[in-house]
Amino acid sequence: MAISRFSYASMRVMELEAAIKHYTEVVGLRLVESDDQSAYFQADECQDHHCVIVNLSDRAGIDHVGFKVNDPSDLVEAAEAAAAWGLAVRDVPQGEIAGQGPGVMITLPSSHNMLLFYHADKIGYANGMLNPSPGVSKNKVGAKVTHLDHTLLSCENAQPTVDFLTEVLDFSLTEKVVDPAGNIIAAFMSCTNTMHDLALGPGPDGTFHHMAFGMHSRGEVLEGVDILKEDEVPALEYGVSRHGIAGVTTIYFHDPSGNRNEFFNGAYQAAGRPGLVPPIIWDVDNFPRGAFYYESSVPEAFFDQVT
Ligand SMILES: [Fe+2]
Hints:
Number of strands: 17
Radius of gyration: 18 Å
CATH architecture of the largest domain: Roll
Shape: globular
Distance between the termini: 30 Å
Mean pLDDT: 95
Strand content: 35-45%
Number of domains: 2
Structural class: alpha/beta
Order of helices and strands: EHEEEEHEEEEHEEEEHEEEEHH
Bound molecules: fe (ii) ion
Number of helices: 6
Strand order of the largest sheet: 14-15-16-13-9-12-11-10-17
Largest sheet: 9 strands, mixed
């Protein structure tokens, strides 16, 4: 199975205008299109139509995550394999989601919906596609986010979803947190050569923990923090910090509906193919150091506040 990348997160928000202001003026994404029910955004260094969708709702949270496949035939293969695992599968026709072709929606054992699709319309890079300037524009608004990097979803038992993603969709397990009996508490999985595209952590099934926006440097994460503080964006009490897991510089904050975002930089590269290298293992006693390396403790809100 050839999944090429984590493409986008489709979110629920309670106020559309506030969400548009947040994802453009704070996070620094481009507004691609919108109507009175939804809005589509893309980061500066991505060509596809969107990396974030927000949909007007009466509650926050995640509607689905979108992953691109390398070939249309992968959609058929994935649908058959998911059905064979007993998972719910739904064909998503062209036009249901703006800017992309048809896809297959799979409900994971964790109760999250994952949409696999092949085609995305192209909007090009922020600096254009013909003789572009290499740097960030002096007119740039918001943080210097380059791309949507990964998401962490919450569920009560990660193991069945880890099994499906690694055994059927060929994700690599790069790091995991285990209890003394070896049960997975958190799992970090990659379908590319970044160390995680999709992670699972503890919490109620089907809930959203965060999505992370990547930047070129640790300095740009600090500049992002300045924007968060100036705009009084609600943020986790820890940060700027560093994860032991992935090793990144990080800060967490929330959109106006309470969906958690992350600015980060510095993840190591993964093998890019499943099974080439074994995962890094964190025992549960060292999880606080893995989660927040400087503080070596986890704030209560970190896992309690999910949407
Ligand atoms: Fe993250």
